[in-house]
Amino acid sequence: MRNSPLGSPLRGDACLHVSLARIRAGEIAGAVEANAQARASFAENGDARGLLMCDQFDATHLHVQGRLDEALALHLDILARSAGVVRRPTDLYICHNSRAVTRMLLGQHDDMLLDFYAALNAARSCDSPGPYINALTNLGGCHTDLWNLAEAQRLCEEALDRAEAAGAWTAYAVSVFNLAHV
């Protein structure tokens, strides 16, 4: 991707997804480089949605560095600046889910749950079943940790059913683990 032209509107999305995959894999330098390429492409094309998602990457990068307060501040800034910007369901899912995880680590459990439920609602509109299954799994695990066991069981069982139907075996295993603690 290094020698590819930035002009294609899809180039930014490709680079963004590479950056998100790399940061989750711990390949920080490659992730930052891919996000810079995504940002340049989105800027060249005047893509406000894409630029917000590059900022979302930056919030995730702060999170990975352990700079949770700064990550949350950026998450909230992105949320405030997103008014009037048409965003994809997957974008919303990623942003709500990432913000929820940051809040979880900061001990902000009430806001964490609100964000995880917002992620679940966004995931319902995604084309792929993956975000919805992941959102159910995350919420089920959080409710298990908070001893909201009836809600945890309901969410984990739905996650288990959907993961099995989709062949999403990692999510299936996590759902079984969560159910074992209900």
Describe this structure in words.
The mean pLDDT is 94. 41% of the residues are buried. Helix 7 packs antiparallel against helix 8 (149-166). The protein is 78% helix and 0% strand. The protein has 182 residues and is an all-alpha fold.
Summarize the structure.
With 182 residues, the protein is an all-alpha fold. It has helices at 9-24, 28-44, 48-64, 68-81, 89-105, 109-123, 130-145, 149-166, 169-180. Helices cover 78% and strands 0% of the residues.
List its salient traits:
9 helices, 182 residues, 78% helix, 0% strand, mainly alpha, globular
* First-last Cα distance: 46 Å
**Can you summarize the main beta sheet?**
none
Q: What's the alpha carbon Rg, rounded to whole Å? A: 17 Å
- Taken as a percent bin, the fraction of beta residues is under 5%
